């Protein structure tokens, strides 16, 4: 039987053969993959996995450069103004593409629809609500009951003001009819450190960055934010199954380039991302870490951005959410 990876490799080689000469010559120097979040988080883990595979595929080093702050918008702005030659690319996130442009109080120094060119979605994430092991919470009902009895005393961390983590918590609080105290950080890892220490009660976040701490017992998984739940944590329910049937929150990571990057380079990069994601060994590795391998066309990621933007705009407006 012919393996899927063999078919993908042959197809990729054929497609590269028919790409314009500019795309075949690119890259001519090392590539910077700009990541807007700190080392050790879900974004950084994926960025480094993809950078390694892209380095092999393109025969040029792809180095990850962490430029943190403003929930990834500092990194996004640096790519939006970079030379559009395909040698600076962005680890693109749903919050950059879909929520920041529609969140009141966020000031963008670039136009995400003109100054960035989406390339492909790499992966979705398994996201969940988890709590400090120093709390007594074991179910969604435990969290809600405590928050109702103690308004504004239950603390939740996030990767920054206006981040998807904050929006999910705000949506949760609205649906549950509770008030909680937001404690923002510059990325997931510093928030996780405070949760482990017991100084912050809980957080909505991605499985990739928290799974080792769940396995060690430092934090406790309560419920996944969307379906299907990850096979890495069998028995952990979804929030929808746990008393808030309308609750749903998901996320994704992708790649973008400066907006004026030649189309043939964007197409070549899309081709390579899809070849990487469809490799069975790489896909299995992503699943084991808490990601959902995706891939797709340039048009697919554009449609994903537009649909997510409309959905989260409605959540933001209905909950009166504003960047602080």
UniProtKB/TrEMBL annotation:
Q: Which domain of life is it from?
A: Bacteria
The protein's name? Tripartite tricarboxylate transporter substrate binding protein
Q: Which family does it belong to?
A: Belongs to the UPF0065 (bug) family.
Task: Give the matching Pfam families.
Answer: TctC (PF03401)
